[in-house]
Design goal:
70% of the residues lie in helices and 1% in strands. The chain is mostly helical and 1212 residues long. Among the domains are: 3-226, Leucine-rich Repeat Variant; 792-900, Alpha Horseshoe (Leucine-rich Repeat Variant), CATH 1.25.10. A two-stranded antiparallel sheet has the order 1-2. Residues 290-322 are annotated as: Disordered.
Length: 1212
């Protein structure tokens, strides 16, 4: 017998003792044993333990009984399934016992067992089997009318079971429904209430047929006409009638019903919104026991005495039997549901609901007040402008008018909250801060005029030591947010009253309070004495106090980690913004920061604080700490902690910029010795910061850099050959190379640097040339150009050498490519001499047999031409007209010239270029048309008001190819950054989108591609037009049979769908709309088209699976409404088989499709109530029983666990 088994055996023996204390202690010890994960019972021990615990359930001592029933929980997971069934059988038998105490214990036992059963989703069938065993016994217990206590206990357990395991009990749903319905007629209120709860859980999981049966039964029991209408249309008028009956409990239930209807069926509730709104407004102020006449003429300020007397008078009216507060709370929650579910009615709600909510801020019942605040916060969140929204002055939008309406309500909100901010109730004050935080976020700057009221409320809560620390921290958090949204001038008059309580919180012993207060102090310094503006407030009266409080925290060594970090950060801001006023305290403060560098826990915040100080425009004297700090920072560059390396490089760069000449050379050399290892392809961001620092130090201390230039250059040249080189690293490398030749004397000779750069191309054996990627040639060419611009006197000679290399018949392809790419950059610096010589060389190169040489020459022709338009552009246009075979390359040159030249210089040639581009369009192939469109787009940017209106004429009269090119050109006018053309473009977008009605497929596809680019990069252009655009977009998602044809391919017939590309473009637009315009979409309508896409072609199904996963996260309620319909296409995809003998690609496509569908299934299962859907439960069971699907599902779950956020997909 094992030790554990022997120990259990001895405990079981003690449980039979006649001494109740022995039995109690033995049961307690058994409980401890069962809670250990390591315990394993053999079959005999299992049987004995189960038997003994069931016996103890009927123990004479109540405490022993309670412990025995608690033991059942951990025991369920430790014994075999048939033993659990034994326990359940015994408990069900006890439930029908004559003894009341045994019945209670059995009820608790069954609930304990049910709560410990593994959920069905884990693949265990135990829960389902046990529930099936219990169900029959519970239904018979409920059906018997003799003992109400048994009925109540059985109904409780049944509710518990249905809420956790409703779907797996599908076979019992019908019998449960027929057992529960009669209980609604029970004479006992408690039985009726519990039956209602159980039916609610059953309704969430049962099939549609049973749900309809239940709904019909309930409606037939209600008074009113028996019209054959939809359930909701029959039900809502009845609930409205019941609201008018004088029964507060019934009213509460009615309003809760409306709330549920609005949340679950917002679209179907549309006809009833007006009536529900008026009922909510009526019952929001339903308070028959309290007569309040002071709605409007409330005094602005009241003394403390009158406040207390007011409170007392309110207390006189409170009544234990008063249920009206529940009605008001239900009305407030219903209003929140109304606002949240109908964002399209927001302008009406701002006129009707918002003022009513503001008037109810004075609500006397705390729970109701919290919900009134909550409803107004929902309103504020709905009014918040969408991401990327810009207030267009020339054209008022709906968002703008909503914000204007809200701004008009701010005085009323502040007046209503004035007294609440000093309320004795902490919860009321917390509600005020939450609401005001939201308001400041939606309307930044709108609270500046009400600072006296707000500051008074904030100081009241911060200084209130009698209350819990939570409200003080909430007040500090609100103050911090306010400093970020309101202008600094608004705080100036209040600083003398505001600073002392904040300082007291900095010194507070509670670490969370101190951390929050330090953050506020940091924000105060940053906001009130900004570095980019002249000081409007003299810091002298405050700087000493702030410095003393912060330094006290900085010096303490026994603080919480968060407080240490905040104290260091706050010190950095204080010194960076006000260091010139610290006087003698500056040096000790800086030395303290250096001291914190030595501590592993505080070194990262200390590095960031030193960076702030070094970057400060106050040019503080940091010499006392440089010799000590630089060697410490040098050691950080060897650490594995990436964040520390990045912060250290930023700090070193800031120090080199501000203190460059004063840096001790020996310390600088110690730092520079660490840098070659950091200039590496393994971490490009670190490499970029290292090269930036090198460029800064080169200008400050060239002698020190000259010593390490060899190894650093070797690493840098290796980096420049990387095909993955980011633009930021390339810019940093250009800056460093320019710095090397720009010092006097130069650290490295110009000619030597050029030779080093081009060596990998000119000497492939020595530099590994053949392996150079295309990107590397561009990088090297940019660096050659950077060196030429740094040494203008050398530029002409360099250009001449490059021209010779490009012309020489002995030059390799690589040398020619590098020469042309370098000329593209150097040509503009070198002057007109080499440019004249270039024309012939570049034109010859366009006929080269090497594609790379042709492309490089084409690029160079455009770039060099941009610097000398009068000479090059007419020549280029003549060549495009005369050389149709080279047209594609010459158009590339024209595109580069249009992009690189100054707009004013291009204006004289705009007409000629425009005419040529549109003349070439009708005969061009698709690739050339795309290039023509880009050229047209760049040309329009030269003179938008003159050229953009011409698109109308081309769209009206042009051929299909021309119309397609025009729409594609518009796409190139959209950038993700603000641009002067945006207002003009916005006024034309509606006309361009009309091309979705064009009969030509290619034009419609180009329009969708342009629309997708607009939605993705600049949604503000199209957001207000979506109402007209969406019907046209949805039209393009439909499969058109007239575009499907059959093509004969040898002995086979192959089906071709000409409309597929257009449909795919439409679904890509729909995905982009989810990212940036969700608030403007009717999700129910949107889902109808997603549903169609789930049954479409492979490419479209892949898109809709991703969309479905996104929708499950963004708006779960409408998705949940139709989960039964959505799951069928997903199931069909996951269980589809590829035909035997199919090619390998077909199997790979099907696997990818299954994986994508399973991701959508996993996303649907994250919606809390999705598992209760019968279809979803059935498919979940199918996944668990199919090994292939189980493996796939588990791998998807692992992937989602490692990457929790759903990244947005680039589709533009």
């Amino acid at each position: 017998m094992s030790t554990a088994a022997f120990h259990i055996s001895s405990l079981l023996e003690k449980m039979t003792s006649s001494d109740k204390d022995f039995r109690f202690m033995a049961t307690s010890d058994l409980m401890s044993e069962l809670q250990k994960d390591s315990i394993q019972l053999d079959e005999d021990s299992e049987r004995k333990v189960v038997k003994m615990l069931l016996r103890l359930l009927d123990d004479k001592n109540g405490e022993v009984q309670n412990l025995a029933v608690k033991c059942l929980g951990p025991l369920v997971g430790k014994v075999k399934e048939y033993q659990v069934e034994t326990i359940v059988d015994a408990l069900c038998a006890n439930l029908r016992s004559d003894k009341e105490q045994l019945r209670d214990i059995a009820g608790i036992g069954l609930k304990t067992v049910l709560s410990e059963l593994p959920p069905a989703a884990t693949g265990s069938g135990l829960a389902t089997n046990v529930c099936r065993k219990i169900t029959g016994q519970l239904t018979s217990a409920i059906a018997q009318q003799e003992d109400v206590a048994v009925q109540l206990e059985a109904l409780d357990i049944l509710s518990d079971m249905l809420s956790r395991l409703g779907a797996p009990l599908g076979t019992f749903h019908a019998s449960l429904l027929h057992c529960l319905l009669p209980q609604l007629s029970s004479p006992r209120l408690a039985v009726r209430k519990r039956a209602v709860v159980a039916l609610g859980h059953l309704a969430a999981a049962c099939s549609t047929d049973l749900f309809v049966e239940l709904a019909d039964h309930l409606l037939d029991r209600l008074p009113g006409p028996r019209a054959p209408a939809a359930h909701l249309d029959r039900l809502v008028p009845l609930v409205e009638e019941f609201c008018n009956l004088d029964d507060d409990e019934l009213r509460e239930s009615c309003l809760q019903a409306f709330e549920a209807f609005l949340r679950k069926c917002p679209k179907e509730m549309d006809p009833h919104v007006a009536n529900v709104t008026s009922l909510c407004l009526q019952y929001l102020k339903h308070d028959p026991n309290y007569n309040d006449h002071s709605d409007e003429d409330e005094e602005q300020m009241e003394t403390e005495d009158s406040e207390f007397s007011e409170q007392e008078s309110e207390d006189e009216y409170s009544d234990d039997d008063d249920m009206s507060w529940k009605v008001r709370r239900a009305a407030a929650k219903c209003i929140a549901a109304l606002i949240g579910s109908r964002p399209d009615l927001l302008p009406d709600f701002l006129c009707t609901l918002a003022p009513a909510l503001i008037r109810r801020f004075k609500e006397r019942e705390e729970n109701v007040k919290a919900d009134v605040f909550g409803a107004y916060i929902v309103m504020l969140r709905q009014t918040r402008p969408p991401k990327g929204w810009l207030e267009a002055v020339e054209e008022p939008t709906q968002t703008g008018s909503n914000l204007h309406m809200l701004r008009g309500q701010v005085p009323l909100v502040i007046k209503a909250l004035q007294r609440q901010l000093k309320d004795r109730s902490i919860r009321a004050r917390q509600g005020c801060f939450s609401l005001l935080t939201e308001l400041a976020g939606v309307l930044p700057g709108s609270l500046a005029g009400y600072m006296p009221v707000l500051m008074s409320g904030i100081v009241f809560s911060i200084a209130d030591r009698s209350s819990s620390s939570t409200i003080r921290m909430d007040a500090l958090a609100f103050l911090q947010g306010l400093l970020g949204t309101e202008p600094a001038e608004a705080f100036h008059p209040h600083l003398p009253t505001l600073l002392p309580p904040v300082m007291a919180c900095v010194a507070d012993p509670f670490y969370k309070m101190a951390a929050e207060a330090l953050l506020v102090l940091q924000e105060l310094v940053r906001a009130l004495w900004p570095l980019d503006k002249p000081r409007m407030l003299d810091p002298e009266p405050y700087v000493g106090e702030m410095s003393a409080a912060t330094l006290a925290r900085l010096r303490a060594t026994d603080l919480d980690q968060e407080v240490k970090e905040r104290a260091i950060s706050c010190t950095g801001h204080l010194v960076g913004h006000l260091g010139d006023r610290l006087g003698d305290d500056l040096e000790p403060t800086l030395l303290l920061l250096v001291d914190r560098l030595r501590n592993e826990i505080t070194r990262l915040p200390a590095v960031k604080a030193l960076t702030l100080v070094a970057r400060s425009p106050l040019r503080l004297d940091m010499q006392p700490i440089l010799a000590e700090a630089l060697p410490i920072l040098a050691t950080f560059l060897r650490k594995n902690q990436r964040a520390l390396r990045l912060a250290t490089l930023a700090a070193l760069d800031a120090l080199a910029q501000s203190q460059g000449l004063h840096l001790p050379p020996s310390a600088v050399r110690a730092v520079l010795a660490e840098l070659p290892a950091l200039v590496s392809e393994s971490d490009m961001h670190v490499a970029q910061l290292a090269v930036d620092f090198l460029a800064t130090v080169t200008q400050a201390q060239p002698a020190s850099v000259a010593e390490v230039s060899g190894p650093v250059l070797a690493e840098l040249l290796g980096l420049l050959r990387s095909p993955l080189l980011p633009a930021g690293v390339l810019v940093a490398a250009e800056g460093f190379l320019q710095a090397l030749v720009g010092t006097r004397p130069p650290c490295v000779d110009y000619a030597e640097l050029i030779d080093l750069l081009v060596a990998p191309v000119y000497d492939p054996e020595g530099g590994g040339g053949p392996a150079l990627a295309k990107q590397a040639f561009h990088s090297l060419a940019r660096c050659v150009a950077a060196l030429s611009s740094a040494c203008p006197q050398e530029a002409a000679a360099t250009a001449h050498r490059l021209v010779c290399d490009a012309r020489s018949p002995h030059s390799s392809t690589g040398v020619k490519v590098l020469a042309f790419l370098s000329l593209a950059e150097v040509g503009q610096v070198a002057g007109p001499g080499p440019q004249r010589e270039l024309k012939a060389v570049l034109l010859d190169a366009l006929g080269s047999p090497s594609e790379d040489v042709r492309a490089a020459a084409s690029y160079a022709l455009g770039r060099v031409g941009a610097g000398n338009l009068p000479d090059f552009l007419p020549f280029l246009l003549a060549q495009i007209a005369a050389e149709p075979r080279r047209q594609y390359l010459l158009l590339h040159s024209l595109r580069e010239a249009l992009g690189a030249a100054q707009p004013d210089a291009l204006k004289p040639y705009a007409e000629d270029v425009w005419a040529l581009l549109f003349q070439r369009c009708p005969d061009a192939d698709e690739g050339t048309r795309g290039l023509l469109a880009e050229c047209v787009g760049r040309l329009v940017l030269v003179n938008p008001p003159f050229l953009l209106p011409r698109f109308r004429k081309q769209l009206a009269a042009g051929q299909p190819h021309t119309r397609s090119m025009v729409i594609t050109a518009v796409k190139f006018l959209i950038s993700d950054q603000p641009h002067p053309i945006d207002p003009l473009l916005k006024s034309y977008i509606g006309e361009f989108m009309e091309s979705l009605r064009d009969p030509d497929l290619n034009v419609r596809r180009a329009t969708l591609t342009f629309f997708n680019s607009a939605v993705h990069n600049k949604p503000s252009l199209v957001r207000d037009l979506l109402q007209d655009i969406l019907p046209l977009l949805y039209q393009e998602t439909k499969i058109r049979r007239d575009l499907i044809r059959e093509v004969e391919m040898g002995p086979f017939m192959h089906t071709v769908d000409d409309g597929l590309d257009v449909r795919k473009a439409a679904f890509e637009c729909m995905y982009s709309l989810l990212e940036s315009c969700l608030g403007q979409l009717d999700i129910c309508e949107f889902l109808n088209h997603v549903e169609d896409g789930l049954k479409d072609h492979y490419d479209i199904r892949m898109l809709t699976f991703i969309m479905l996963a996104r929708l499950a996260a963004l708006c779960p309620v409408p998705v949940l409404q139709r989960v039964d319909r959505l799951i069928e296409p997903l199931r069909a995809t996951c269980t589809a088989k590829v035909k035997a003998g199919s090619v390998k690609q077909e199997f790979e496509k099907q696997d990818e499709l299954k994986r994508s569908a399973m991701r959508a299934v996993a996303a649907l299962l994250t919606i809390p109530e999705a598992g209760k859907s019968p279809s979803m439960a059935d498919f979940s069971a199918q996944i668990r029983t199919n090994p292939e699907l189980t493996i796939l599902f588990e791998s998807i779950q692992k992937d989602s666990a490692s990457a929790p956020s759903t990244d947005s997909m680039e589709l533009s």
